[in-house]
UniProtKB/TrEMBL annotation:
The keyword Membrane applies. GO terms for cellular component: endoplasmic reticulum; membrane; nuclear envelope. The chain crosses the membrane at residues 12-30, 121-141. It comes from the Eukaryota. This is Microsomal glutathione S-transferase 3. PANTHER family: MICROSOMAL GLUTATHIONE S-TRANSFERASE, MICROSOMAL GLUTATHIONE S-TRANSFERASE-RELATED. Keywords: Membrane, Transferase, Transmembrane, Transmembrane helix. It comes from Smittium culicis. The lineage of its organism: Eukaryota, Fungi, Fungi incertae sedis, Zoopagomycota, Kickxellomycotina. InterPro entries: MAPEG (IPR050997), MAPEG-like_dom_sf (IPR023352), Membr-assoc_MAPEG (IPR001129). It is found in: Membrane. GO terms for molecular function: glutathione peroxidase activity; glutathione transferase activity. It is a multi-pass membrane protein.
Amino acid sequence: MISIGNGYAWNLLAATVMGLQCFAAGHSVYDARKKYKVDYPDMGSGRFSAKLSDKEWAEFNNIMRVHQNYVEQLPLAILSVLVNGLFNPIQSAIAGEVYIIGRFIYAYGYKSHGPKGRMTGAMITILAILFNVGSSFVGIYNTLKSA
């Protein structure tokens, strides 16, 4: 039987902060669109961005990739922090916070040093997700086994 205690609120907080952090990364893209005059629907390789210098094009696309990568990872990051939180609320919330810190490191590194600058943050986020996904499967397995 799965029961949700008050500690699960930490998992809900981690999931909420992840969503807000992704939203903030999207706002960075909005700011970059204004700065570099890259209008919709250009995603960094269209007619508007073709008018940028190589340096501006790289800067815009680095900001765009920070957000896009977050959008790509967000479903699994949130799902795993919530599912694992049913079995291991404290460990899952800590892994969620590690993921959030990793996203800050990823964004800073990518924006300031390009694709190679993202690697430390990428490793942190991947390890946090793998921990929560793996622990989710263990919790699900143990729950089904005891049913």
